[in-house]
């Protein structure tokens, strides 16, 4: 980019503005894959945290030679840049899943980064100390301790009024009334659903929002009674409302039934949910666990609903195993089907 000769402060400011625009344009072209990343871009625009040079990107299938390059960790991305080609890999920090450091060998220390979108990168780093420092940096970027450390919050706005209320800014941007209205709650003439603030201050359930959507026919006492009958007080509440036919999806935790316990308030709440849809009187209850697991939970005072105590209830188990088995299954699936050449 050619720049004119300067002779005044105004011209200097104009040149600075053009340089800044040019820098961000190059950064955009880099992210979009139109232009290679330049080292000074990392320092000026990307919030560079750490750089490790002479790193080898290992082909996990062993069909391609390793690629020598450098790893750049910024406040928003982990970037691998090849030395002898235009190859670059950008991974947003929020997609970092696990970081695993291997055993030191004569060639160096292997480092595996498994991402939440199923990409797996394996690097070979010459110096063990650099590898350990990189592990710590990646873990901090992928698992921030405070929400304010997340890039979306760290990249603060310049408005003084907003900055003064930084602690509240993120929460205030979400309005439950607006969200429920978007789904159609409160717009129908019969108004089958209502927004309740009985959980204000997370008084009853600390893992639910303060504002909940429940059938209009229910009372506060009914809600409190259902809370006491559900694990972690997670009573049935609206999750999704389909405006065209008034169908809805509500979620809840397992009931504390044991072998024979029941709760009148919980039964009343479930019946009220069924009545919110005038075109269907049947309530379908889906339990994602295997039935055997649910039976075992009965011995711990938990379990599942007894259909004889609920009106027009149909029960179905989805037989999804626990999280550990599901993760193992997914890992094996990925190992079998992912073609590393795509990355």
TrEMBL record:
State the superkingdom: Eukaryota
Residue ranges of every copy of the Myotubularin phosphatase domain listed in the record: 170-343
Q: Know the name of this protein?
A: Myotubularin phosphatase domain-containing protein
PANTHER family from the UniProt entry: MYOTUBULARIN-RELATED (PTHR10807), PHOSPHATIDYLINOSITOL-3-PHOSPHATE PHOSPHATASE (PTHR10807:SF8)
Q: Which residues bind substrate?
A: 322-323
Q: Which GO terms describe its biological process?
A: phosphatidylinositol dephosphorylation
Question: Do you know which InterPro entries this protein is assigned to?
Answer: Myotubularin, Myotubularin-like_Pase_dom, PH-GRAM_MTMR6-9, PH-like_dom_sf, Prot-tyrosine_phosphatase-like
Q: Name one GO molecular function term.
A: phosphatidylinositol-3,5-bisphosphate phosphatase activity
Record's Pfam families?
Myotub-related, PH-GRAM_MTMR6-like
Instruction: Please name the SUPFAM superfamilies in this protein's record.
Output: (Phosphotyrosine protein) phosphatases II, PH domain-like
Q: Could you give one GO CC term from the UniProt record?
A: cytoplasm
Q: Could you say which protein family the record assigns here?
A: Belongs to the protein-tyrosine phosphatase family. Non-receptor class myotubularin subfamily.
Q: From what organism does this protein derive?
A: Brugia timori
């Amino acid at each position: 980019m050619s720049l004119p000769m300067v002779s005044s402060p105004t011209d200097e400011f104009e040149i600075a503005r053009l340089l800044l625009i040019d820098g961000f344009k190059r950064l955009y072209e880099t992210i979009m894959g139109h232009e290679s990343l330049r080292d000074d871009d990392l320092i000026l625009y990307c919030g560079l945290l750490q750089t490790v040079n002479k790193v080898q990107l290992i082909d996990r299938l062993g069909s391609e030679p390793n690629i020598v390059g450098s790893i750049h960790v910024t406040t928003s991305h982990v970037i691998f840049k090849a030395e002898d080609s235009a190859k670059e890999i950008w991974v947003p920090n929020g997609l970092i899943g696990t970081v695993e450091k291997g055993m030191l060998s004569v060639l160096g220390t292997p480092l595996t980064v498994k991402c939440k979108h199923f990409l797996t990168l394996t690097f070979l780093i010459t110096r063990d100390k650099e590898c350990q420092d990189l592990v710590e940096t990646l873990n901090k970027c992928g698992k921030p301790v405070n929400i304010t450390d997340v890039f979306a919050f760290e990249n603060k706005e310049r408005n003084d009024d907003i900055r003064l209320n930084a602690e509240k800014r993120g929460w205030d941007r979400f309005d439950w009334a607006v969200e429920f209205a978007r789904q159609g709650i409160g717009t129908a003439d019969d108004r089958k659903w209502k927004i309740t603030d009985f959980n204000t201050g997370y008084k009853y359930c600390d893992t639910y929002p303060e504002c909940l959507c429940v059938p209009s026919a229910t009372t506060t006492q009914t809600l409190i009674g259902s809370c006491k009958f559900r694990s972690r007080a997670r009573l049935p509440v609206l999750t999704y409302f389909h405006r065209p036919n008034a169908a809805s999806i509500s979620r809840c935790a397992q009931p504390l039934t044991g072998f024979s316990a029941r709760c009148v308030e919980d039964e009343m709440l479930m019946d009220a949910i069924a009545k919110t849809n005038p075109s269907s009187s049947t309530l379908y209850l889906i339990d994602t666990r295997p039935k055997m697991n649910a039976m075992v939970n009965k011995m711990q005072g938990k379990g599942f609903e007894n259909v004889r105590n609920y009106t027009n209830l149909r029960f179905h188990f989805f037989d999804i195993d626990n999280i550990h088995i599901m993760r193992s299954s997914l890992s094996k699936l990925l190992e079998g089907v992912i073609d590393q050449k795509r990355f």
